[in-house]
Amino acid sequence: MGKVEMDLSAFMNIIIMAIGCLVVILVVNMVIIVSNPDNVEIMSLVRGAYEEYGEEQGAYVGQPIYANKTKDPYYIDVHSDRVVLYPEVQELALSELETKGNAFEQRLDLIEPMKSRIYVILVLRPKSSRVAKQLRRALHDRGIDVGHELYEAGRKIPELKAPDLATIRAELGLAAVPDAAPAAATAAVTNAAPAAADSVAEPAATPPSEAAAQ
Amino acid sequence: MPKKKKGKKAKVNLDSFLDIMTCLLGVLVLIIILTSIDASQTKMIVPTPMAHLSTKRPVFVECRGNLLYFVDIAQIRKALDDELARIEKEAGGDRDKMLQMMSDAVLDTDNYKLDLSFALAGQNLLVPKPDAKGISLDGVTVDTLLMKSVQNAGWYEKLLSELNMAEDMITFLVRDDSYAIFKKARGFAWMKGIECSYELLDVTDPIKLGLGGEASLAQ
Q: What is the CATH number of the domain that holds A143?
């Protein structure tokens, strides 16, 4: 029987082109992965240096020069008469801040062991300078990093996600906090470390208008 | 004429090479599937602001009544030194008289009145003058910011061009009523690569600079 010969050179060309395409896709995937090796997601409320009020859907221009890309933020909305803890949208009157073991202190107790990965952004509303100064002092006393942003009085804060505590605690080798009962967990942390900040309860010793000394 | 001999065409057997290529194709497909799963879980990082201590020299700009005012520290210091020298000379070594004169003295600069009674405590207390002339950035929009142009912004435009981004930073003293102009001014500064810090002040609070204050954290 005669040998059947097939010319496969055309098929080979197709395979070579397909390999070329696949290599391109592979390179794109690798670039995406390499650009964020830790697979970190940062929840950002403040997206630009200049955000036109009322244009929440766009108009974000510029970014902070020394912006953070490694720590996840908890947001605290600071008003003149209250603070609001996010993402739970838990309101605290100023009088509540003066009681020991309040929700703000519980939040700090929760963050403190993870302060290398979590920090706090204070969203400052008009007339909130005195309250903000006290909160900042409390955060500073705990060594927790802080960011701040000025937010107009009526401007709404969009829905925010809490940092992934389970992952962060696992990475830092800390005992897991059950997700189902965050309040109980934070209370437990608070009880474990009762030497908490009294600094929020302190009256403002200095007026808030002190700016930087040179 | 002699007939030209028909040469035999050399044939290369590409079967093995084709097998290798096909295997490579399969392996690549598998790798792409795996990397795609990983890449699809990667979230976009949007940076968030974080304050940090800066060693740069602060240049103070006040945002009040949706206008910008330059806090000219050099001018204020010079006026303070001149006044202290005058008081010292007039008091003629009388300490009580000197203290009395200092507590009564109020210096006038372009935009601020300087209360000398705080100078003994190492502080400069600046009270804004109601007739001071600030500049507005009303013409500034997202488009002008995107174009990175700072035009018709008076001394602020000049200030941004003169600052050394390696050594200077702008500290905004922001009143409650001036968030809008602060954000525009900060936008311009960041566009020019200049670091900023900001302090929120109540509308009626005086500005205190000097001992007892906290360093303004840049971000």
A: 3.30.420
